[in-house]
Prior knowledge:
Oligomer: heterodimer
Largest interface: A-B, 30 and 28 residues
Shape of chain B: globular
Number of helices of chain A: 25
Structural class of chain A: alpha/beta
Strand content of chain B: 35-45%
Distance between the termini of chain A: 50 Å
Amino acid sequence: MTGDPLADHLIAAGALAPDDVAAAREIQRVSGGDLGWIFASMGLVTRRTLYTSVAEVFGLPLVEDLERMRRNVDLALIFEMTYEEVIAYEFLPFSMEDGVLVIATCRPKRADAQAFARDRFKATAIAELLVSDLDLTLIASRTYRDALIDDAVMGNDNRNPEQSARRVFTQRQLYVLGGIAALGVLWFFFDARAVLIAAIAFLQVFYLISIAFKVALSIAGAENEIRKPIEAHEIAALRDVDLPPYTVLVPVYKEPEVVHHLIAGLKKIDYPQHLLDVMLLLEEDDVMTLEAAKAARPPANWRFIVVPNRQPRTKPKACNYGLKFARGEYLVIYDAEDIPEPTQLKMAIVAFRKSPSNYVCFQAALNYFNAEENFLTRMFTLEYSYWFDYLIPGLDRLRLPIPLGGTSNHFDVAKLRKLGGWDPFNTTEDADLGIRASAEDYRVGFINSTTFEEANNELKNWVRQRSRWVKGYMQTFLVYWRSPVRLIRTIGWKNFFAFNLFIGGTPLTFLAAPPLYFIFFFWFVTRSRSVELLFPDVVLYLALLNLLIGNFLGIYLNMIAVYHRKTYSLLPFALLNPFYWLLHSIAAYKALWQLFTRPFYWEKTNHGISKFRPESQGSGEKVAST
Amino acid sequence: MKRFGRRLVALLLLTAAFAPAAAAAAQSVVGFESLGYPDDIASPGVYPAATFYLPRYRSLRSLALDLDLDVAPLADPRSSVAVTVGGQPVWETSVAAIRKHNHVHIALPLASTIADPLAIGVRGHLFITGDVCSDLASQSLFMTIHPTSHFTVQTSDDPTDIRSFFRSYENHVDVVTPSGNDEASRAAIALPYRVRQLEPWHDVQLALVGAAGSATRTIVVRPGSAALERTANVLTVAPQQVAALRAESTALLFDARASGVTAGAAAGAPSQRVALSELGIPNDTRTGVGDIPFEVPLSSNRIGGIPKDLHFHLGFTHTPLLEHTTGMLQIQANGTLIAARELSQSGTTEEMDVAVPSRLVGTENDLRVVASYYVGPGSCSGSLPALTGTLSNASYFSWSGLDRQPNDVSDFVKILSGNVAILVSDERFTHAAFRFMDELGRVNKRVRDITVQKFDGSVPSGYDFALVFAPPESLARLGLPVHADAATFRIVNPLDQRNLFVSTQNRSIGIVQVGAASGTPTLAFTYFHGADGLAGLERLSGADLLRQVGNVAFVADDITSYEVGPKLHVVYEGDDLATKVWFWARIPIGLALLGAIVFVVMFASRRLTGRNAA
């Protein structure tokens, strides 16, 4: 006998071996928590077995016919509670008779929930029906479907329409932009050359500043090489008992093939499993992935959250929806194929605890396990190595707004909710959130942990993904330029400058590159005087500086990223960056087109198409083989 | 009272009639500068000499020479300087006397010669040691005559005939044209050239003015006037009679009034030989030892083109050579030895026929005939063992033909001759054309016929050369090297793409360019970016033009020329296809762009700004 009625019952029922109980007890001793939930999270018992046993041990009726329950529930009681309260207290009011409130709960005997129920419904007594956590989530999501999805979609817009990309342009922006364009055309009509010279001069100055800014960021980011933000001993000093619940959001769409890999990957995370709240966010019409997920029989700490079908069908909408059900104190988003370094969650917790209270998020580095697959993956790896190993640390070090990466961003859930979650209308919701955090006086930090992802290895797929990102940058730029004065007052000139260079400058760079390349090659071939006319001396010297020094620095900065990761085989490919930048330009023009035609359309990136498969995680070394 | 009035009018008319004649009887000053010596005249050697020529007009009564000169400081004070008239010494003084003021005033006796022109010579006899050989070898002896020197001419009452109008020692002439009269303005353009042809011996200063000024002579071009009429020092000329003002016709105008004057018949077939005498080179006799050079310049402006198959036929006579000495005769063309022979011991007339290689022939050809005579040491005691040689002015150049297609501005000015058309588009160009013809007259007097016409965009046939003065936009049909109506242009060296000249739209400049419109060698004068550029053209001097070895000259504060064509390229801003396309397409493009902006703004306003955009 173990002394724990539930454990004894499970042993008696043959669901557990005494050794399993001992192992779970050891985990409970170290990290606390409910023993039954530890069994389920370890995968020792299924959720059904656990709840059946709990029902039997505590003498509670177990609700298994959810449809019958929904038919019999007292809707008047339901509407007395918000879905936030249902999720927070983990119960649903079922009926009320003679002052006795019957509730369906997955956490029986929870004192704060019972107190809340008595108070809210003026109940003299509480009677409990047992329902699994998953079923409770399912019932709640069906019952509060409209409110939940409304909030997921419109939450940010309702909170602050000025920070929502739901409107691509404001009328005032259109008038200003249209007026500037019309004046430009008039000027062009009377002095086309002057307009073109002015445009080229502007672009050259912009390129020069942009390059100088990147160099400055790289130098600042290189400090990270010496001064690690989070040290290993700080992670080792963390006690499991002090660890909070941690939500892991994994939005997937039609990716049944990655579920097994995802489960395996997250099992290797160095974090007590029963404290991990893993939510697989599935679209309503994605039955295929849902079935695959069920078939994989993940541990009980996994939940499948089905996001109702409603436009816009975007990842941030799914994340917002998932956020409603998050139980963790912190939250991280991973893509299905991600392989985070095992200590990443703990590292995030250390970062939160040692940082001022205004930190809302810490971004981990992203890199690729299939870097050697083809030209595209190599270039992508070079780009991300530089971005996450130098630029983002540089931004962090200079205390500038950090545009978040798509995954591996670790949030303080309470602050994230205050910020209104993600903007579902923004196709680069992560970058937008980083800027919004800055605009709301929050900070985003950087942790020196890496998540390995699958680099896009197909050109069309790459263009789709990149066009979505660039479109999101355009949306974000337009959003925060609705009230530039206010933005400057909030974040200051330095951050405003960085915002424009990063968020506005990225699409501009890509859009401007092809015409400038064309002009250069046209002149190179024809030596046309009409080209020379567009480059008065000062502009010519500036253009030459950018052409020679700027391109060199662009390539060189990519090269130094190779040294950080010791992926020397990628070194020669840095020289091919100009071609890679042209691909960005193709994506940028597609993004510009879609900004007007399909502003909220989410260009889905296909995952799991790499021939490479990760063998291990978190080594920081090459983790792939063919 | 009525009678008194008539007497007063008669008195006034009489006074008016005789006053100019009285003024003409005054003295005139003919400066050396006016005679064509703007710089110091330096003459080296023991016998330095210089000769000046003055025409001997009927009105000449007395002549005086004011000489500003320096003599070599090493020259012995007992050395002397003499002045000759017609080769006869008329005055002499010691160097010591000259050094007191470096200025002498000499009244020249006119009776000593009857020659016309008067040849007034200044000759020195300088020495240092008395040993002529030694003094000669020292090369320290020279005499310098400064251009401030001048002749003072006393004239009697000027004759009033037309012929003597152009036989004056006064060198200021005003040309007056009625304002706004195109015909008169055009006719006046040829006048300065004609006057310079008629008075070649001095530098006549001509000014084109609207009303008579302070000049002692005035030519009024007046449409509807009598053909030619002289009143005191005013010559009134009908426009159509300007062409008749040539030496062969004016020499016969002994009256104060003439009409229906025609120019002489056109010259016959052009000659293919020219003697040195025809080039103004006299028999030149020199004595000395060492290299004794005789300069024989042949400029294309004297023969009307660049000669083909040029030959030089030399006649050179020399004294016998002393025993045991040798002498040599060399002929050099533009610094290159082309022929040489030994002088005969007995002394004789050496005749040589030398072909000048075509590669050495240009517009300016400097032939040097050098008689070299060297004596051994000790041969100088007692007397000067010198060689005396005479280059005969019967020596001549001959050629098989003339290349009359000028390659550059300088060539054009030198070659210009024969029948010339001056085409002027409008009155704005009158002063520039007048000034050019004035300056041309200084350096080239070979133009026979001048026809001034209004420019209609093309060069008429039948002329040997054409001068065009027109705005840039009307020169398109002339095929000139530079299209001055372009927005801007550059002269580029195609070898290294270096810009040699870049026009800007901020500054007007004058442009002179050589072309061949309809096969006629043409010199076009225009401006770039505004007629203010004509100011530069009006300041051009003949010397400026002769320095321009390019076919396009740009004139602003300074003048620079370039060889545009095979060597250098002209590149226009507006010459590329894109610019041309833009020029006609900018309206539809501008409208299309504006339309696109309106469409996008309206589309975005309706679809992308509403709260229901999702």
